[in-house]
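[job 4417] fold queue: 2 targets
>>> target A
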Amino acid sequence: MKGIVKTFGDLALSLETEDGWQFYAPYANVDDEVLQYLVLWLRVPVRFNVDWSKYSGENRLGKRYFATDVKLQDVEINLVL
């Protein structure tokens, strides 16, 4: 799946797809490269797999299933320093 980092906290990221589905991504399931970009901006584009057997909370569309193997999506990033 593809989505963006919507929020992050002490234990995990919250990911959201284009159609509004949200997924819970404990930091153990997140590639370090994704975490480095959180310093620069929040809506980091990511790709990930879903573990449909685990969930943490719900949103308006349903259960917030666990995201696994969260990696930076293949995008070109231009930074002006």
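>>> target B
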Amino acid sequence: MVKVSDGDALRKEIGCTMFQMVPVHTQMPACPLVEVWLDEEGLLNGGDLNRTATQYFSPVNAGEFHGNVVIAAPGVVP
């Protein structure tokens, strides 16, 4: 687990210049909501499809994730 305390650290972990957070409802009772931090321009920049994140979250998010993602409980990333 990597401690991310600012935008520069998050950009480094994701490997991007611009990022966004997508709140995603899960089917896990212990953690019904997570924050998925991702490359905001991943699809536009031709980033590889993140199959794991897309398969796991697509039933509830109805979208694709490209590039690296950081998944966190709400409020963990300031």
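[job 4417] complete. Note on B: The chain has one domain: 7-72.
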